[in-house]
Structures are given as structure tokens and as C-alpha cells.
Amino acid sequence: MSKTWIYIIIMAGVTYLIRVLPLTLIRKPIENRFIKSFLYYVPYVTLAAMTFPAIVEATTAPVAGIAALIIGVILAWRNTSMVMVASICCFVVLAVEFVLV
Amino acid sequence: MKKNFMEGFRDGIPIGLGYFAVAFSLGIFARDIGMNALQGFLASLVTLASAGEYVGFSMMAAHATYAEMAIAIAVTNARYFLMSCALSQKLSPETGIGHRFGVALGVTDEIFGISIARKGVLSPFYNYGAITIAAPLWALGTSLGLIAGNLLPDRLVSALSVALYGMFLAIIVPPARDNKIIRVLVLAAFAASFAFEKLPMISTLSGGTRTIIITVILAAIAALLFPVDDEEDE
Fold it and tell me: Do A29 and B89 touch (CB under 8 A)?
């Protein structure tokens, strides 16, 4: 077996361990109020931190990313479905970059 | 069961399309370091991690030791640990061990995002639906990037790359609109994430590590100041 395959197994194995340990070890609702509240807030902070400023840097023209961000927030504010928000953001980038780039 | 699977599949489609575009560039990187299409396909299918794979492939290219590889992957993917902790509270306590192993297969930023956005208790079948469409597209994108390099026009790659962020917005904006604490928290996370990218020293940390630091600090502050009651927890 080549070294590459061993690398791949380690990569996948370590990643899976990180994912599977909490899910299998924490099998009951956590009672501690602080930890419970902490875990309740985790998703919002994580997703927000990953979205900005990354969305502005993902596109060829930063302005296209900013436009996608603003329109995405407006659509999501109005309860537009996830699929629609994602698709329209893509079209916004396509349109802005068609004009600019 | 079937309904949950189909809904997961439906929500997994934009994720898969976003993955496809990102994986394409990952595939180009994999080709540059000498991997073949089968290796790229399988590595992506079983690892299912963007930044993690970039780091892993870089370690391969650098002929790192196996221990170095394991440590680098653990650090890069540590945020999945936090996500799995949060997901453990979203599953019903009755969820069997087999389903827990199954859900763990697909703890990615995006699938985590849509899982947490589900109302009430999370059905493992929702995750299976999302994984079924998203994981193969991720793997396929990687191998196609390896084979076909620059086939996908830059314009399209650029446009598709915001699909994932659009989804994140759809997840965080409605609760932020309805709940003042979450709104402040989201804005604080935006600001912190922006600042962390510009600050000396901190900006040299990887994106994944910066995300963990921001999450732990801000979520802990919010939990101390505004602990949630059972009723608010949906």
C-alpha cells in the first residue's frame, strides 16, 4: 500500500473520531444550565463567523460578495427558503461579475 | 422517516452544488501534489472536510510524519467537535448508537447548519438524506478537478462559491430577527471574525482555529449573561 493511502486513512480516521465521540458519548440531555446555554448559542456564532468576511473574499470581485451578502440577509429576513437564498446569492454574483469583470 | 430523508436530500442539493465547486479547486490542488483521481475521490468521500483536506493534502506533499498528519487534522477539524456536542443535544436521547455513528459521518459546517435549523428533535434520516446527495458531489467534484482542471469557467466557480454562505444566512438571519440576543451575537461574530482576520498574530492562525476561538468566547459570554430557559430551547 502506498504512503498516500495511509495518509488518507489517517486523515479520514482522525476526522471521524472528532465527529463521532461527542455524538456517542453525550447521549443524555445536558442538565447544566451554562453548558446547555453555551451549546444553544454555538451554532449562531460559528455560522456567523464562517460567513463574514468569507463571503466577500470568495468571489472574484469583492463587490459581488458584498451584494450577495446584503441581498441574502434581506431575503432570509423575509423567511425565504434556504435553497432560494443560496440560489439567488449565486445569481447575484453571476450578474454583478458579468457587469464588472 | 421517508419524509425526513427527502427533506434532507432537498436541503442537501444546494450544499452539494456548493461543494462541487469548492471540491473542484481542491481537486486541482490534489493533482498538483500528485494524487490520482481515485485517491482524490475516496479521500473526499471518507473525509468530507474542505479545510481539513487542504491541510491533509499539504501534509502529504510535505511528506509529514503520520503523527504530524494526525495532529494537523485534529487541529483543523476541531470545530466539528463543538458541532457534534451541539448536535448530541438535538437528537432524541433514545437515538440508537448506530444512528449516532451514521449522523457523525456527515458533520460538516453546512450539514450541521441545516440540522440545527430543523424544528424540534433531529431525525437521523434528515442527515442521511443530506449526506446522500452532498458527499458524492463533494467526492465527484474533487476527482473532476483532478482530471479536468480548468474546465469549469471562473465565473461559475465564483458564483457557486457563495451558495454555502447564502445557506448560512438563511439559517442565522430569521432567529436573529426574532431574538435580540442572537442578533447581537451574530453581529459580534461578524465583527470578531473580521477583526481576527486583520489583527497581527491572530490572523496567522487557520480559519478553523479562529472560528473555534470566536465561538467559545462569544457563546460562553452569552451563556453567562443570558442563560436559556427550557421553554426557549426549541
Answer: yes
